[in-house]
């Protein structure tokens, strides 16, 4: 999603005349968040589906989709500051998958994720933090896969973040729920992803 659009999407909320101000949930991630390959990401991506759940319960939250296809944790570290110009009440971090698929050093992924979290904490110390865990396939190497898969619990525990253990639970490896590339969820797959996230996220809204 365009950075300006992501940063400005909820700007009208800051001027709300309602007694209860709408709170912002920033979904910060890569193509999985952006809704790569979907016919209409604005309605089919998991952040959009979560917005539907929020609206159905009449909760006062606005989901902002700041997903960017191809984003690594290093790229996210450089991009996050700009997006924090918009008030963030809940921060949902979904990065690391591209690091893993490229076989980047796990130590770098940890360092970059921690830097992103630190940046958010410094700007919005009261923001609730959520981390969406990922896994890489064993063909990346057994030791590498084990080290990578442990990253997310490590970061979540260190920062008292709510953790979704595996974002693509019940989606990864199932052909009918993924595009032909075998990586990105289809619209039905995104619905399951949304449920995976909502199962945890709803507890802090």
TrEMBL record:
UniProt-listed SUPFAM superfamilies: SGNH hydrolase
InterPro entries, A to Z: Ester_Hydrolysis_Enzymes, SGNH_hydro, SGNH_hydro_sf
Domain SGNH hydrolase-type esterase: from-to ranges: 27-192
Keyword Hydrolase: yes
Entry annotated with the keyword Hydrolase: yes
EC nos: 3.1.1.2
Broad EC category: hydrolase
One Gene Ontology MF term: phosphatidylcholine lysophospholipase activity
Keywords: Hydrolase
Protein name: Arylesterase
Organism in which the protein naturally occurs: Arcticibacter svalbardensis MN12-7
Phylogenetic classification of the source organism: Bacteria, Pseudomonadati, Bacteroidota, Sphingobacteriia, Sphingobacteriales
